[in-house]
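Board notes (copied after class):
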Amino acid sequence: MSIEIKNLKYVYNPGLPGETVALDDVSLTISEGEMVGIIGHTGSGKSTLLQHMNGLLKPDSGHVFVDGECITDDKTDLVDIRRRVGLVFQYPEYQLFEETVVDDVAFGPKNLGIEGEELKKTVREAIEIVGLDYEEIKDSSPFELSGGMKRRVAIAGVIAMRPSVLILDEPTAGLDPTAHRDILSMIRRINEEKEITIILVSHNMGDIAKMCDRVIVMENGKIVLEGRPREIFTQDALLESMGLDVPPALDIMRKISKSIDGFTSSALTLDEAAEDIKEFMKRKK
């Protein structure tokens, strides 16, 4: 499923002293199966843009198309759009409320009319795709789980509604390193196994560089850069002017390159850095 946005504009508090232009003539296309990262400092318009992608907000001007259907049209069935374009806000575990994991994950699909054996199959698949053991966890209280497991259960509840696009706003925020790594692995698995288009918002540049096919950079409600991770993160001076960092691996490897004669690396991820170091050591022998 693709998403196309044309000339989107949205203003908070129009005509009031606190009037703020959150989106200013934003246009972009996200293709089916892509994993796209959106970055920008706080207040750049990222979250506002996300909420237009499934109709939670309606633009002051411009249009949003989901698989060719204009969702800014008054006749659009937004309930169906929100099923097809799943949006996971920061700290989704705060929205858990049922007594068991199974009941919580089943809540969305039940409301879509899925029942019986199909419901059981849907819930099991959603729990397993986020990396949890169905039999082990199904009757547990979601409130007794670890933070990382709670978050995966919350995401499973969205996956169970069978979206074609999954939007994740800071999915690893506040997690310990192990849970952080598990969530990223889960996102990759969802993209590859379910062929779900992923839109990932994060302040963690290492995650964006590692995970995404394409990166969109926002500032003051506009898209200012768009391209593959290497194209974006090699423009570190421009990113710095917008208050953004480069991936930690790139920063470290550049410093090493300056201190060791004959060694150069523009690795974006730790895996790439390890390969560059390995190749350098081979040449030195």
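Comment from the instructor: The first strand starts at residue 3 and ends at 12. The two ends are 50 Å apart (CA to CA).
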